[in-house]
Design brief:
The protein is an all-alpha fold and 158 residues long. Helices cover 82% and strands 0% of the residues.
Length: 158
C-alpha cells in the first residue's frame, strides 16, 4: 500500500503544478490580449488624428495655391474637420483650428468681394483679404508643433 500512496501523492503534486502552470498561461494570454486591444485603440486614435492633420494640411495647400481667391466651399467644409478635432485633440489645437478657420473665412469673404470688382470699398476689401491671409499663415505656423504632442504612438488611452 505504501507504493500506491506515494504514487497518489506524486499525481496530486503533479496535478497541482499543472493547474498552476495552466492558470499562469491563461493569465499571460489574457494580458497579451489586453495589450493587443490597447495598442489597437492607440493606433485607431492616431489614424483619426492623422486624418484631421492631413485634411488641415490639404486646406493649407489650397490656401497657398489659391490665396485670397480660394473657393468658398473648400473653406466652409473645414467646419466638419474642426468638429471632429474637438473629440480627438486638446483645447489648444481646437482653439488654433477655430482661429485659423475664422481667419480663412474672413480672407475668403473679402476675396469674394474683390472678385466683384467695381465696389467703392474695393481697396478696403483687398486690404482686409491680405491682412486675413497673413493672419491665417501666422496661425498656421503654430499648428504642426501643437499637433506633434498628440501624434505619438506611445500615448496611453486609459
Amino acid at each position: 500500500m505504501g507504493g500506491i500512496e506515494v504514487t497518489l501523492t506524486v499525481v496530486q503534486i503533479a496535478n497541482a503544478c499543472l493547474t498552476s502552470i495552466i492558470a499562469l498561461a491563461v493569465a499571460v494570454v489574457a494580458y497579451l490580449q489586453w495589450r493587443t486591444a490597447h495598442n489597437k485603440i492607440v493606433l485607431d486614435l492616431f489614424d483619426r488624428r492623422m486624418r484631421i492633420y492631413e485634411q488641415s494640411v490639404d486646406l493649407f495647400k489650397e490656401v497657398m495655391r489659391e490665396g485670397v481667391t480660394i473657393d468658398p466651399p473648400k473653406v466652409i467644409r473645414f467646419h466638419h474637420v474642426r468638429d471632429e478635432a474637438a473629440f480627438l485633440f486638446g483645447e489648444d489645437v481646437v482653439q488654433l483650428l477655430k482661429d485659423w478657420h475664422e481667419a480663412l473665412i474672413d480672407m475668403m469673404s473679402s476675396g469674394q468681394m474683390i472678385k466683384q470688382g467695381d465696389s467703392p470699398d474695393h481697396s478696403d476689401h483687398v486690404k482686409k483679404a491680405y491682412t486675413a491671409h497673413k493672419k491665417a499663415l501666422s496661425i498656421w505656423g503654430q499648428f504642426p508643433g501643437l499637433c506633434q504632442q498628440y501624434m505619438k504612438m506611445d500615448q496611453r488611452v486609459a
